[in-house]
Amino acid sequence: MSTGTLGGDRAKIARRTIRSDRWWLSPLLTVLGLTAWVTYATVRVFMQKHYWVADYHYLTPFYSPCVSKGCVPDSAEFGRFLPDVWWLPFAALTLPFLLLFRMTCYYYRKAYYRSFWLSPPACAVAEPHKTYSGETRFPLVLQNIHRYFFYAAVVISLVNTLDAVHAFHSPKGFGFGLGNIVLLVNVVMLWIYTASCHSCRHITGGRLKHFSAHPIRYRTWTFVSRLNTRHMELAWITLGTLALTDFYVMAVSAGWINDLRFIN
Ligand code: FES
Questions:
Q1: Looking at the whole model, is its pTM more than 0.85?
Q2: Which of 129, 152, 157, 231 is the most exposed place for a label (fewest CB within 10 A)?
Q3: Could you tell me if the CB of 253 is within 6 A of ligand 1?
C-alpha cells in the first residue's frame, strides 16, 4: 500500500472516501464564511464614505491609514497623497499588505486549499486533482514570503493602535463611548492574532540551540506558542472583530445609530 507521499499512489479504494461523518461541513462553512467576509470588505473599501466619525475621531480599520486626497483631513494623520479615484481604496497603501499577510497565513492557506481548491477537502478524502506538488513550485512556493508580511502587519497594528488612542476624543476634548470599546477590542484581538503567527513563533524562539542561554526569548516563545495553538480561532475572531468594528463606525458615521457615550 502507498504511504501517500508527494506524487505517490493512493490506496486502492474505488470510492472517493470511506468516511461516513459530515466531513464536507467544515470546507462548506469555510467557503461561506470567507466569501461573505471578502464580499463585505470589498464593498466597504470601495464605498469611500461612512468611514470616519468626526465628533469622536472614530476611523474604521478598513480605511486606516487614510492616505487618499479624498480622505477627510482630520482622518488622515499620515498625509493625503494618493489620488482620489473611485477604483483606489483610501487605505490602498496598506490594504495589499494586510491581504497578503492573511492570504499567506498558514491557517488560511489550509482553509482555502481545502475548501476552495479541495486539495484535499478533508483528511482521508481523495482530491479531484490528478497531481499534487504542494508548495514546492511556483506560484505556491511564494507563500514562503509570509514572514515578511508579518513585519508589515506589525506596523499596521501599530497604526490601528494609534487610531484607537486618538479615538478618545469628543468635541469637548477627552471622550469615551461604546465606539472606543469596539475599537480597543478590535486592536487587542489584532495584536493577539499577529503575535500568534507561526513566523512570530520562529522569530522569538527559532534558530536557538540552547533555550537556557536565552531565558527572555524562551519565555516569549512559550507565550507565543500558547497563542499559536489558537491561531485558527484567532484568524476567525479577528475577521469578526474587523467587520463588526467597521460596521459600527459606518452605522455611527451614517447616522443610523448614536454612539453610546460614557464620558462627553
Ligand atoms: S501564520 Fe497565520 S498570520 Fe502568520
A1: yes
A2: 129
A3: no
